[in-house]
Design a protein that fits this description.
With about 725 residues, the protein is of the alpha/beta class. The chain is built from 8 helices and 49 strands. It is globular and about 90 Å long. It binds 2-acetamido-2-deoxy-beta-D-glucopyranose (12 copies). Keywords: Cell membrane, Glycoprotein, Kinase, Leucine-rich repeat, Membrane, Receptor, Repeat, Serine/threonine-protein kinase, Signal, Transferase, Transmembrane, Transmembrane helix.
Length: about 725
């Protein structure tokens, strides 16, 4: 009996020890696991404290559940989150980066888990609104970012959250105003607030002043307007203010200089105005100062050069002015990127910049810089990106002779950089070995004369070559086709003669898909116009999505287009207008399945428009006006959706969209019927031709942005919202970059 009893006791002892976690918790967890359709968790042993992802405390209560990036998916509409409601001792829950969705589960979770301190549900597909009931008082960190939560953020949600230090709801679709009274109604311990990538609107109301521990405040990519709240300047703990891509305005108050711990100030793409506060140098910890695309003006306060921690200084597209050479950049010894694009700076290239040894990118484009490039620029050993476009420099020959020795240089734009000075195309050098890493070269809109120089064909890494609008003469060198990575050639608006070289039709990058291209990001994103600026611009950090283009427009080229053109299967844009080409439009152009822009206007082409061209589904713009073409425009195709001006100036061409009807065929055709057929086809073809255009544009923007991770979404959203205004701005100011 006693033996039996002790056996029982042992059994009880063991069984309680084996079933260490409580039955309720075990049931809860199993219910959770059951709702998951994949993958199955190895939750079989009896003690759930030993299960994967579970941690218990000394009392064998489940306190942590951590299953991030496990590919968890759940079955239909039952949210797994609601089954966690009985894990009342849970303090840490991390289900980040899974595929949980639905809007029902999380409310119960917020309500029932009274000890929860850390909740990370980021990167799922959860939706719904935040409950108006207060969140657990013990919560310290809440990350709901990168989901599909929506609605307003109710202030009652935080009523009891006295210990909240970090709150991240970025990348959802929250609306209404930013809950800036957070620190007043709840925790004044908050250090991190991230509201970016939502649909918050209105102004940032006062309240942040109560967040006396706030370090990081991010609310970029919303629809915020108004001025910055005064009490924000009281939060001297702030290290980061990131509010890009909003419609905030007002003068940058001198009070911002109270925020001496600031390391990141990002106010790009807003409407801030006025001058920079005089004693800006007080912000001596500043690493990133990003103010591009605002309405700031005036000269830079000399004390800015006391911000010696600066790594990136971007003041592009404002109205700053002043003699650049008067600023002493030499104290900015950590500077890596300087972007002063499109301001009103004058003076010479600041020689003090030559002592910023770590500089990787300099863009002074679209200012009024004069003078010469000095050989000292070679002390910038890391210089990889240099754009001086749209200035009034002198001595392009000297500049080229110096810059070719910049070993790291990958991107060089000297478009329209120089005042009128005719220079020979070889820049006085028959032969040289420079620019060995150059990927992008833009010498357009200068006064370069003579034949396209041979040294260009030594630049084996060259991908983009723009010599547009110079005075190049002679034939197109057939050596061009030997450049293994070249995929963008613009020789338009020169005095080039001779024929279209057959060899050009074997340009490797245009003939077959290969992954030879450098995938490295440029140090700064570039603006570039598509199709000569007709439909838009791109803002890219990577050349991978630069359109594959041959532009030979407005030269003196003669002869036929070689049938070998059909080999350039990857070509996106072909501009041959305003030359003296003759013969027929080769059928083979219809092999260029990627072609989106084709301009053959103002030549002497004859014969019919090949019907096969109608198979070019991506064709968004097409122009054959002012040639000697004849016959009927191929019907029932996207050609009818182009305007008549694309066909005008060909007296013998007929049919829609031209007003002149074709001669009735010998057998009496029913004119009315055929027109009906055409107009029936017109509607779908407009759609078809518009949609690929859109798709193409979309990918051009989006695809390239994939490579600038932080900004991908930002710029995509920006282009989405304000494409037109950016375009107008670019078209006015930067069109030739
Ligand atoms: C979803 O749950 C039902 C029962 O509720 C089950 O029959 C079905 O197999 C589950 N689907 C998946 C994909 O697990
Ligand atoms: C499941 O976990 C147990 C221990 O808890 C382990 O012995 C077993 O190998 C695991 N099974 C799989 C398939 O991983
Ligand atoms: C959740 O897990 C992920 C992946 O391990 C980790 O990066 C993240 O920091 C965790 N979240 C919290 C709040 O600890
Ligand atoms: C949680 O506990 C309650 C009360 O014991 C019970 O009714 C409910 O089914 C439990 N929920 C889960 C998911 O186990
Ligand atoms: C807040 O944190 C303090 C210190 O960690 C703790 O003593 C207190 O219980 C917490 N408050 C709540 C409501 O959990
Ligand atoms: C908030 O979460 C997003 C991911 O969704 C992350 O990129 C961002 O860095 C987080 N914010 C802060 C301040 O940590
Ligand atoms: C936003 O969320 C989506 C979906 O989870 C994710 O793919 C994307 O990377 C997130 N964007 C940012 C900027 O965190
Ligand atoms: C914010 O957006 C809502 C619509 O979502 C609108 O009704 C409201 O007027 C906006 N508020 C402000 C201040 O613009
Ligand atoms: C900033 O702080 C000072 C002193 O702490 C206080 O007098 C002032 O009212 C605060 N300003 C705002 C706008 O809250
Ligand atoms: C903040 O700035 C104001 C005036 O700009 C000044 O009077 C005040 O002392 C500053 N406070 C701190 C903490 O620097
Ligand atoms: C820059 O800082 C130095 C030393 O802190 C100081 O003497 C100087 O006046 C400051 N210059 C400007 C222009 O503020
Ligand atoms: C042009 O620059 C080169 C290299 O710096 C220099 O040798 C030459 O003297 C300059 N020419 C003129 C006219 O200034």
């Amino acid at each position: 009996m006693a033996q039996c009893l002790s056996f029982l006791l042992i059994l009880i002892f063991f069984s309680t020890h084996i079933h260490a976690c409580s039955q309720t918790e075990r049931t809860s967890l199993l219910a959770f696991a059951l709702t998951l359709s994949s993958p199955s968790l190895n939750w079989t042993s009896s003690n759930c404290c030993h299960w994967e992802g579970i941690t218990c405390n000394q009392d064998d209560s489940v306190t942590q559940l951590s299953l991030p990036s496990k590919g968890l998916r759940h079955n239909e509409s039952i949210s797994p989150l609601s089954s966690l409601e009985n894990l009342t001792h849970l303090t840490y829950l991390n289900l980040s980066r899974n595929s949980l969705y639905g809007s029902s589960g999380q409310t119960r979770l917020f309500l029932s888990l009274n000890h929860l301190e850390i909740l990370d549900l980021s990167y799922n597909f959860l939706s719904g609104e935040l409950p108006i009931f207060p969140l657990s008082g013990s919560i310290r960190m809440l990350d709901l970012s990168s989901n599909s939560f929506n609605g307003e953020v109710p202030s009652s949600f935080f009523q009891r959250a006295w210990n909240l230090t970090s709150f991240n709801i970025s990348n959802n679709t929250f609306k209404g105003s930013i809950p800036s009274s957070l620190c007043f109604t709840s925790s004044s311990l908050i250090r991190v607030l991230d509201f970016s990538f939502n649909k918050f609107n209105g102004s940032i109301s006062p309240g942040l002043g109560d967040c006396s521990k706030l370090k990081v405040f991010r609310a970029g990519n919303n629809n915020l307007s108004g001025i910055l709240p005064e009490d924000m300047y009281n939060v001297t703990t702030l290290e980061q203010i990131s509010l890009p891509l909003n419609s905030l305005y007002g003068v940058l108050s001198g009070r911002i200089l109270n925020l001496t711990n600031l390391a990141i100030l990002d106010l790009q793409f807003n409407q801030f105005s006025g001058v920079l506060p005089l004693h800006f140098g007080k912000l001596s910890k500043l690493k990133l100062l990003l103010l591009q695309i605002n309405n700031l003006r005036g000269s830079l306060p000399p004390s800015l050069m006391n911000c010696t921690s600066l790594i990136e200084l971007n003041l592009g597209t404002n109205h700053f002015e002043g003699d650049l050479s008067m600023y002493n950049f030499s104290k900015l010894s950590r500077l890596r990127k300087l972007d002063l694009l499109k301001n009103q700076f004058t003076g010479t290239f600041p020689t003090s910049l030559y002592s910023c040894k770590f500089l990787k990118a300099i863009r002074l484009s679209a200012n009024d810089i004069v003078g010469q490039i000095q050989p000292e620029i070679l002390s910038l050993k890391s210089l990889s990106f240099l754009s001086l476009a749209l200035n009034r420099l002198t001595n392009i020959t000297g500049a080229i002779k110096i810059l070719m020795h910049c070993k790291s240089l990958r991107f060089l734009s000297l478009a329209s950089s120089f005042e009128e000075e005719e220079v020979p195309a070889d820049f006085g050098m028959a032969d040289f070995d420079g620019f060995q890493n150059l990927v992008f070269l833009d010498l357009s809109h200068n006064e370069v004369t003579g034949q396209i120089p041979i040294w260009l064909f030594k630049l084996k890494k060259l991908e983009v070559l723009n010599l547009n609008s110079n005075k190049f003469t002679g034939p197109i060198p057939s050596l061009l086709w030997t450049l293994p990575r070249l995929f963008f050639v613009n020789l338009g608006f020169n005095l080039i003669s001779g024929e279209f070289p057959k060899e050009l039709c074997s340009l490797p990058m245009l003939v077959s898909q290969n992954n030879n291209l450098s995938t490295d990001d440029l140090e700064l994103p570039i603006y570039s116009t598509k199709d000569g600026g007709k439909t838009g611009v791109q803002y890219n950090s990577n050349l991978l999505y630069y359109p594959r283009t041959i532009d030979l427009a407005s030269n003196s080229l003669t002869g036929n287009i070689p049938i070998e053109i059909g080999q350039l299967q990857l070509l996106r844009e072909l501009f041959l207008e305003n030359n003296f080409f003759t013969g027929k439009i080769p059928n083979q152009i219809s092999n260029l399945k990627q072609l989106a822009y084709l301009d053959l206007s103002m030549n002497h082409f004859s014969g019919n428009i090949p019907a096969s061209l109608t198979s070019l589904n991506f064709l968004a713009d097409f122009n054959v006006s002012f040639n000697n073409l004849e016959g009927q425009i191929p019907t029932g195709t996207q050609f009818q959706s182009f305007s008549a001006s694309a066909f005008e100036g060909n007296p013998n061409l007929c049919g829609s969209p031209l007003p002149n009807k074709c001669q009735p065929p010998p057998i009496d055709g029913d004119d009315n019927n055929s027109r009906d057929v055409n107009s029936e086809h017109q509607v779908p073809w407009i759609l078809v031709s518009a949609v690929p255009g859109f798709v193409v544009g979309f990918w051009a923007v989006c695809g390239s942005l994939i490579f600038i991770k932080t900004w991908r979404y930002a710029y995509f959203r920006f282009l989405d919202n304000a494409y037109d205004s950016l375009y107008v701005m670019i078209a006015v100011g930067i069109k030739r970059m």
